[in-house]
Known about the structure:
InterPro entries (chains A, B): HTH_LacI, LacI/GalR-like_sensor, Lambda_DNA-bd_dom_sf, Peripla_BP_I
Pfam family, one (chains A, B): LacI
Protein name (chains A, B): Catabolite control protein A
Strand order of the largest sheet of chain A: 2-1-3-4-5-11
GO molecular function, one term (chains A, B): DNA-binding transcription factor activity
Distance between the termini of chain A: 74 Å
Largest sheet of chain A: 6 strands, parallel
CATH architecture of the largest domain in chain A: 3-Layer(aba) Sandwich
Keywords (chains A, B): DNA-binding, Transcription, Transcription regulation
Radius of gyration of chain A: 25 Å
Oligomer: homodimer
CATH topology of the largest domain in chain A: Rossmann fold
Helix content of chain A: 40-55%
Shape of chain A: elongated
Amino acid sequence: xxxxxxxxxxxxxxxxxxxxxxxxxxxxxxxxxxxxxxxxxxxxxxxxxxxxxxxxxxxxxxxxxxxxxxxxxxxxxxxxxxxxxxxxxxxxxxxxxxxxxxxxxxxxxxxxxxxxxxxxxxxxxxxxxxxxxxxxxxxxxxxxxxxxxxxxxxxxxxxxxxxxxxxxxxxxxxxxxxxxxxxxxxxxxxxxxxxxxxxxxxxxxxxxxxxxxxxxxxxxxxxxxxxxxxxxxxxxxxxxxxxxxxxxxxxxxxxxxxxxxxxxxxxxxxxxxxxxxxxxxxxxxxxxxxxxxxxxxxxxxxxxxxxxxxxxxxxxxxxxxxxxxxxxxxxxx
Amino acid sequence: xxxxxxxxxxxxxxxxxxxxxxxxxxxxxxxxxxxxxxxxxxxxxxxxxxxxxxxxxxxxxxxxxxxxxxxxxxxxxxxxxxxxxxxxxxxxxxxxxxxxxxxxxxxxxxxxxxxxxxxxxxxxxxxxxxxxxxxxxxxxxxxxxxxxxxxxxxxxxxxxxxxxxxxxxxxxxxxxxxxxxxxxxxxxxxxxxxxxxxxxxxxxxxxxxxxxxxxxxxxxxxxxxxxxxxxxxxxxxxxxxxxxxxxxxxxxxxxxxxxxxxxxxxxxxxxxxxxxxxxxxxxxxxxxxxxxxxxxxxxxxxxxxxxxxxxxxxxxxxxxxxxxxxxxxxxxx
DNA sequence: GTTGTAAGAGAAAGCGCTTACTCAAACCAA
DNA sequence: TTGGTTTGAGTAAGCGCTTTCTCTTACAAC
Lengths: 333, 333
């Protein structure tokens, strides 16, 4: 029932090696034989089994994509771009959501290896390095997107988080804000660390006081943003502006503000980060730091595929510039 | 370098079939031997190659998911649920975006088969049945989610679109609206057809005139929704309410209304469909028909896996009830 | 007419597993 | 003790490909 290379060979009156050669376009084949085999393949609806060819040393042409959550627009957009570029280059993507759970991540890492994917793109916060280090040692192709581990020589494609944070906070300062809060995820993400670093530096450069109570650690969900915003806005050190390190957090801020009867940007300025679709549909449209998601997705795929093809032997970090998109959630104080 | 079943066998002083038996927990193995083999596997960090075992007739434990676009929140949420349930049951998902392009879809269908995925879940509008029919004939496990082809006996999990449309339009009518527009995708999707059908029926039941000019065909993007809304709202037959068949279209309506200086719900009532995250973050929160995405994702996976495991031989349609979620985008006329 | 070389294609050995078949040892009832 | 069962484990034949080697022709050069 399933037609194999043997069926084609028999039907065409040649050996399976000849068929294999015309499939892969290798070796020498007379035009006549090639035509004949091609025609038989056609009439028999023959499709080579990728499982079999993977077993004989060829690629699976599949890459794993490990992210926290596709339902999060930022990662959904990344996933889309990765898949697009992968398709262009003949690779499929196996999607893995971990919710940043280290065990899930570790499980996936070894599962993907078992499944012989050709490479793995990681967009999650990794803390547990055991499996990761193993893979790295075996020179398993791995690349990080929107995520970095400074202590390791690895392939990375990310935005310049420090610069992005700098732009965001500078913007608020230039509007006259003095009490600026920052909401971020955990400091395991270097991106968050860099943005916080920028925040401190801008404050310092402008002679503003750094108040720890205005630095809120949370996760990346809207609910978390909302909760954190409530806390901030009800505290005595109520800020006049908030730099939310993800658009999703910013949306949470919007919701809290609305429930408290505060107007954005009149009563509160908000800057987000990522420039996902959320930024444009929220009212007022969110001023945010754009990550070049398209370019990032494209470049990680290119990077990892070059690694897979063995075309490069040196790891590299690609740091792309962010861009502050000023919309209507920020206002002169 | 790569450790295989042979290495384990040699190290443990047994044959490879014994190792295979302990891996798969089949046949009879003495406790002593099993322990010994297990220990060797452990110390050697042995992981069976799934490619090899797939070649010998076992499953790949991978399912393909074909959707229009993960960057669309509705499909992102579906993808997430599918992956979650798949993981629980030991299956990975290969993500495929087609933008509803028939060629891309056909390409993926045959590619997925070549890659020997165990089953395929489809959420796209299929028009081209050739490859699909082939697969169906070969009893290749296929299930549809949020998508149906009434002419075919297939596995389907979807919401009751007629009922959903009925609820949405009835709600608007009950608020006193008489000029109600409907915005939908193309009529190839049965879901759209059913919603339109419901729209007509509600109008009729309430003695309202059916005006073709209030029926707008578009695609599912925000931009399309915006364009369509502009057109409607500037036309002489300007409606007082719009039933947008996707939340994303509804968001487009919001944007158009805002640019035209119209207030929702004072000047225009809007009902969406899907109840994606968009509905809650838009201002005012969108009244919409909720699809039970969690349940749908869970059930397609269960359905297809039962099919894969050969536990069922009859196709079935699972039609889940929608729920009208009244928020603040609709108002008594 | 030899010899040398290149072109075209087949034979066969894997790739890392699963599984049907086989067989020796151990056990048990009569 | 004998014959019949279990039990535990090995042998070997694939699964559907790729690829190295080998071999036969054909043809050009001398």
